[in-house]
Amino acid sequence: MTAVDQQAPQVAGPEIGRARRRKEDQRLITGRTRYTDNLSLSGMLHLGMVRSPLAHARIIAVDTAAAKASPGVVAVLTGADLAGKQGSLPCAWPITDDQKAPSHPAVAVDHVAFAGEVVAVVVARSAREARDAIELVDVDYEGLPVVLDLETAVAGAPYAHPELGTNVSATWVYDSGQAGTGTDVDEEIAKAREGGVVIERTYRQQRLIPAFMEPRSILVDPTGEQLTVWSATQVPHFVRIFLALVLGIPEGKIRVIAPDVGGGFGGKLQFTPEEVLTVLAARHTGRPCKYTETRSESLVSAHHGRDQLQRLTLAATKDGTVTGLKVDLLANMGAYLGLVTSGIPVLGAFMYNSIYKFAGYRFTTTNVFTNTTWTDAYRGAGRPEATFAIERLMDDLAAQLGRDPIELREQNWIKHEEFPFTTVAGMTYDSGNYEAATARAKELFGYDELRAEQRQRRESGDPVQLGIGVSTFTEMCGIAPSRMLGALNYVGGGWEHASIRVLPTGKVEVVTGTSSHGQGHETAWSQIVADRLGVAFDDVEVLHGDTAISPRGLDTYGSRSLVVGGMAVLKAADKVIEKARTVAAHQLEANPDDLEFAGGRFTVKGTDKGMALGETAFAAFQAHNLPDGFEPCIDADATFDPVDFSFPHGTHLAAMEVDTETGATKLRKYVCVDDVGNVVNPLIVEGQVHGGLAQGIAQALFEEAVYDEYGTLVSGSFVDYLVPSAADLPSFITDRTVSASTTNDLGVKGVGEAGTIASTPAIVNGVLDAIRHLGVADVVMPCAPHKVWRALQAASTKGGAA
Amino acid sequence: MIPASFDYHAPTSLQEALRLLGSSGDVKVLAGGQSLIPILKLRLAAPEVIVDLGRIESLRGIREDGDALVIGAMTSHDDVARSSLVATHALLLSRAAQTVADPQVRHRGTFGGALAHADPAGDLPAPALALDASFVIIGPSGSRTVPAADFFQDLFTTAIGEGEILTEVRVPKHTGWGAHYEKFARVAQQWSIVAVAATVRVENGTIAQARVAMTNMGSGPIRASATEQALLGVAVDASAIAAAVADIAEGTRPPSDLNGDGDYRRHLAPVLARRSVLAAAS
Amino acid sequence: MTRISVNVDGVVCSDEVENRTLLVQYLREQVGKTGTVIGCDTTNCGACTVHLDGRSVKSCTMLAVQADGHAVITIEGLAHDDVLHPMQAAFHDSHALQCGFCTPGMIMASIDLLKDNANPTEAEIRKGLEGNLCRCTGYQNIVKAVQQVAGASAVTGTSA
After folding, report:
1. pTM
2. Which residues in A lie closer than 8 A to residue B264 (C-beta atoms)?
């Protein structure tokens, strides 16, 4: 357990760093929640979606007569009805100029490209009547050849979208030789083949489903002057812009609200067919319309994550110094490009070299269409894939050279004194201390004792073997410096906005463009503002998630909210102080430079004459006595564009037991020491780590989105898509080191995705470390018992060669 | 998520329930609902009539009747798991009932309902088979008692005929026997990939009597009679038991699915059987 | 349609319901208790957990008509006069929730767990919550919250 600073609320001292209990909790623990499906409007109609059971088919006819006649049904809308109105869902990241993408209708018009695609929308007076009518819509399909496998898809026909004449959407390359950030990787590999070590591996990043606990829901009210859209989304600002762009509705006529949102993890970072269809249905009927998906619908129609085939070549000298890394990805886009689908592999491109000093590096991704649900961001979005690849390679290299896996990593990682360090991928890591994190992790883990136990179990041939999995990682988050996004061809920017109002009564309102859906921004931003403005934590109100209240923002994903959004809040606070200073100076008849601001108060240096911030706000409100030309307002806003990405790091160690008789694995102990820079709220940080670990571990051991040969998702419910419960995970031992970021004034780094990024390879490395001596070289994730057992069987029949 | 419409009746007597069952062709019995309601929600079934047995008190309860325990069909898994009568006289049922699904489901799901549902991956049929339970079925033509060996006929198919209701299960007392239900699954909530139910009577450090049955090794529970014979007189030690249970999977044709193929299940069965028998005997 | 009478959070509700209405739908749509939520359709997630006659049940796997004549406590019926139930307070204190969606079901299941076993081990707590899925917290702080309530009861000698 971590030693968490648990100060009682009454104790004085800075807010930043304090384990403040959350303001968000009161409503959530008493059930006074406003998740979108909880909301109702008079006269509201309900939508039901008719979804294709086939993965690839022409739509010959859609017969809606029986459905339209069904009790309670107000309308049934098909692709034919909506073709002229629905536009095409956008992809905001053409990673290359020649990126190919099919048009992406919200409701299929003449063909479907994945099982689960919407082919008709039923609008009825109740959800029950809508559901009953779904069965009555008769769709005549003509099946088309289905392409599911990446290697088949990249080779040629059948095409997921025949009109494209290819399944390849784009190919994107980063080459350190060409970019001038390193040498030519082919030369490094050639050298290593001569007198060094070359490790070539193919790893499979299986397809995952974000599986946020709140199914998506949209409620649209078309009856007001503005179109109001409530949506269980991570990105209300994006939804607003895209509704305007795609449907041609004037942007100022659209209000989007993310009320309470029950988790996202990137899975609700999307502009969805269901959002478009609910808006169109509402405009068509002139009535409020609500659509809430079932879990079965969610698993098949909300975008999936990961799904890459990774071909890797690692070059090193005989003494274990890494020299070159070549990465060749086949990345499964699924059937369409969602908002960020094509860019996910690119987000990982700069992270395969990780914390190590490579001379040469090349990354290539080939983005490929298949007749499956499209993929897009899921916790880590490209970086878990990268970290998995490099951490598996480092363990394999250590095994091949007979070296301790931690020692080998240390030999190659960036030393504490070397920061800031520009990598072979062109990223400059600002700060870090891999040595300190690792030493602490080993200590908490009992590394030496566990190695001794491992040896003893091997010697005695214990049926339960023990493995130690290592994962040392950094990641690239805090999305993102806008210019860098532009350089990568992303359509949008990466800034964040905040505005702060000091009310006449002295309370403070903070409006943030971030969109918290469990991350505790109301609490953490209150802590930042309380410290900066010297007001009480409880006197700060944080508003978010509603484009009418927070008109500017780029929402929450990519571990950006604190690093970018928190900084916007800080900058706005500083502007407030400057304006207030002018008022205070005038009212105190002092020179502004002679005023000190501390503890929420301006005092004239050397005197006890002063004025509280709240008083300056009231003075501005009254406007009786302000300097000439001064606008009667001390409120301020700030738009903050980060100067760089954020680079947290950590060392994760997992003790894995493998029951060689059944292949069952058990996570016995998990230690992580993470460095996320300065910490605003340690409880929130640890909570993010715990949650991230659970998802990363689940990728290693439990979860996989599985399709059958027809393109039907067979893991289509929680019976088969195995999200772990409390009974399936242990408690984690977590700790931190602090290497403050040097690229933002808060000194903070992102944490939301770190646990997920680091843990998957720690687990898999642990499983393999337990049974490598029995001849097992790899187990494809998830490491299910039957797969581990098969690997053991295959190794023993082969005679034990690794 | 939303079932199709149905007519609903909640009779308060068995007689009335039978009458209602006989009055419609497309009727399903609702016991605890933990199997039926999920099926209705996914519209895998859409009966016209549902007869809820939940208000027939006579179907609930656990009592002794001479050398048998009698468990009312509507007794919840939780009540079976907690019952001191069951723990004393049919410990295997107690152990198995505790592993069903999760606490909330155990509060509603019923012993008889689960047995009548006969899911090959369900946890109660194998223990019931191992204990030579017999099933009291009442229908329009009266009452009959079917031994477990004849009760489980196929996937989701039992000896209960149309218009009939399982009212109680008679379990011969196995007082003082040790018992264990070894359930193998990837996560706690998951259905058994394979499970082995074992209950044994130990005398002087050797197994004097053994009853063993397997879950999810076929279309229904499988009694491992040959293995039971092989265990007689075997010392309570891992390698002796391992030898005795080694062939337990012989002749079985277990399913293949996302959690493993038939070969893997055939491999698991003796491993789990060894663990189950050893735990039961210790 | 069938007329039912259910005591929900201390108030007797008399309503006409469709036979196929699930208890969770009745609570949310007719009684207005939207604090109890729906997270799945296969009885796995437990977000819909309420207490029926004092025992935890998944309200998505019950028909409203089955609740006729019975008493239901939802998350909204736990606090009294603005005083939180100790489990609610412990969840807050231990940071055992993030997005909050699984929280009502998790709290109801946790209370039931301690009714059965006032002093559970960590393993017993984890097993006792196997019917409730959370995607945000990784469960660690949820376990802590339950331990906190169990420990406090041990000290005071009362049950949660």
Report:
1. 0.97
2. 786, 789-790
